[in-house]
Amino acid sequence: MDVTLLGTGAPAGLPRPDCPCAVCAASPGERARAAASVLVDGVLLLDLTPGAAFAAARAGRSLGGVRQVLLSHPHDGPAVEVPAGLPQPGRVPDGRELAVLTGHRVRAVALDAGGTGYAVTGPDGQRLLYLPPGGSPAGLEEGSGAAERYDLVLLDVVGRPDALAKLRAVGAVGPATDVVAVHLDHDVPPGAELRRRLAAAGAREVADGTSLAVGAYGSATSVPDVPRRTLVLGGARSGKSVEAERRLESFPGVVYVATGGSRGGDTEWTARVAAHRERRPGSWRTRETCDLVPLLAEDGPPVLVDCLSLWLTDAMDAVGAWDDALWADGSERELRERVAALVAAVRSARRTVVLVSNEVGSGIVPATASGRRYRDELGRLNAAVAAECEQVVLVVAGQALVLRG
């Protein structure tokens, strides 16, 4: 199948009309995106949007051969003039299948929100899935049976990363599936920041008018680079935990490793923990432990460790590193051994790992010797772990700066 994306933007397009935000202001010209609309083999049109005929002409395509127009949005939207010769738009009921005279089969996919998704199988057997903005497939559960794998998936990766996680959990999306983000809005700055976020999810963006050969995905220039090991650094309340969680929210079964414990009686800490839990996807599992070495040695789903700063505090407590006499009498050596073991575990990890740590070296010099010792040891730990990671990110004021990778 040959697929042409006549538009890749949100229903209102990008930039939004009369929107003064920074992203819209930075999205004119080549960065502009029309509302998402997909032309399949020149015969099937998914979503008729204003200017679709002109968009097709700009892409070197024609709507003259279209035999079926299907709508996906929760509602039919504002009246759109149907170009002469184009069939009237329609919608396939959930669970029903439509056979097009050209040999394409279209199955309507039920969603957990309004709208209709479409699974299209071409005459050659290749399969694509197109989901409307804000939509995620309903009824997809692990263990519900082997799902057919799609060659191309077009969905709202930024707005519904959990939809991608569901598809991965049942095997409908695999390593060879081309995942392309559509319905892009002003939630993420365009350019490098958008590409970085999508790459972390194993997805990519393309410009309006791009044609994709379904099943041809896999060239070295198109495969998103999903790092196996990532270190996310940042100061207090910088957004580092949000950044780390965002990197894994499109993957199923993530193991969230909390190294801080419960701290019974500390109401402020309890509130922090509750905020973190509420923010995480319901499919994630939480483990409260500082025993990271055996966990990193296991095979399994992605792991998010939050954070190394608290792991170091626990390790220094265990070896008596706060006492000068004990530090000189062997606890320094014991701490070095623990750090070396952790770094070796990060190096040999075979599962996807995202680690969070505080960056404290740029702040005020601690007034106590123990405080300075902790600052120095955390700096050494961060540097050692960073050396083993494919990607290192520093978060400042909620903005992720890529230091490596």
TrEMBL record:
<keyword id="KW-0067">ATP-binding</keyword>
<dbReference type="InterPro" id="IPR027417">
    <property type="entry name" value="P-loop_NTPase"/>
</dbReference>
<keyword id="KW-0342">GTP-binding</keyword>
<dbReference type="GO" id="GO:0008820">
    <property type="term" value="F:cobinamide phosphate guanylyltransferase activity"/>
</dbReference>
<protein>
    <recommendedName>
        <fullName>Adenosylcobinamide kinase</fullName>
        <ecNumber>2.7.1.156</ecNumber>
        <ecNumber>2.7.7.62</ecNumber>
    </recommendedName>
</protein>
<dbReference type="GO" id="GO:0009236">
    <property type="term" value="P:cobalamin biosynthetic process"/>
</dbReference>
<comment type="function">
    <text>Catalyzes ATP-dependent phosphorylation of adenosylcobinamide and addition of GMP to adenosylcobinamide phosphate.</text>
</comment>
<keyword id="KW-0547">Nucleotide-binding</keyword>
<comment type="pathway">
    <text>Cofactor biosynthesis; adenosylcobalamin biosynthesis; adenosylcobalamin from cob(II)yrinate a,c-diamide: step 6/7.</text>
</comment>
<dbReference type="InterPro" id="IPR036866">
    <property type="entry name" value="RibonucZ/Hydroxyglut_hydro"/>
</dbReference>
<comment type="similarity">
    <text>Belongs to the CobU/CobP family.</text>
</comment>
<dbReference type="GO" id="GO:0043752">
    <property type="term" value="F:adenosylcobinamide kinase activity"/>
</dbReference>
<keyword id="KW-0548">Nucleotidyltransferase</keyword>
<dbReference type="Pfam" id="PF02283">
    <property type="entry name" value="CobU"/>
</dbReference>
<dbReference type="GO" id="GO:0005524">
    <property type="term" value="F:ATP binding"/>
</dbReference>
<keyword id="KW-0169">Cobalamin biosynthesis</keyword>
<keyword id="KW-0418">Kinase</keyword>
<keyword id="KW-0808">Transferase</keyword>
<dbReference type="GO" id="GO:0005525">
    <property type="term" value="F:GTP binding"/>
</dbReference>
<comment type="pathway">
    <text>Cofactor biosynthesis; adenosylcobalamin biosynthesis; adenosylcobalamin from cob(II)yrinate a,c-diamide: step 5/7.</text>
</comment>
<dbReference type="InterPro" id="IPR003203">
    <property type="entry name" value="CobU/CobP"/>
</dbReference>
